[in-house]
């Protein structure tokens, strides 16, 4: 129905992704921040976090990212599928991930958020890594314009 597009157009933007995992009780989904680097999608996790527990038990997962701007008529869907690994926190990569969403200057980051939620020195911090086995893109940015794309 839609058209493929270069995934880099979405992967570099500070959008919210949805990480889908499986467990004996069925599928689960969680919103995540991500960093596309070295051919992999890196997502934050915690040793005690439910996504990390599920991926440790069953590494199969999917990540969906949608860039939607209703007023502009933009709708880009990116899907990544494969098996994820869970590794230790890598402070430099974690800082780059945070900078993507919070800006490049750490002095401008919300101290409350960094101290309580996004602690770079958190011993329980983990990085979830998905090197996708498959990538799917679908540009359906014609829902307002008809057959002409609102986005190139």
From TrEMBL:
Gene3D superfamilies: Electron Transport, Fmn-binding Protein, Chain A
Pfam annotation, one family: PNPOx_N
InterPro entries: Pyridox_Oxase_N (IPR011576), Split_barrel_FMN-bd (IPR012349)
N-terminal signal peptide: none
Domain of life: Bacteria
Coiled coil ranges: none
Domain Pyridoxamine 5'-phosphate oxidase N-terminal, chain residue ranges per copy: 9-86
Protein name: Pyridoxamine 5'-phosphate oxidase N-terminal domain-containing protein
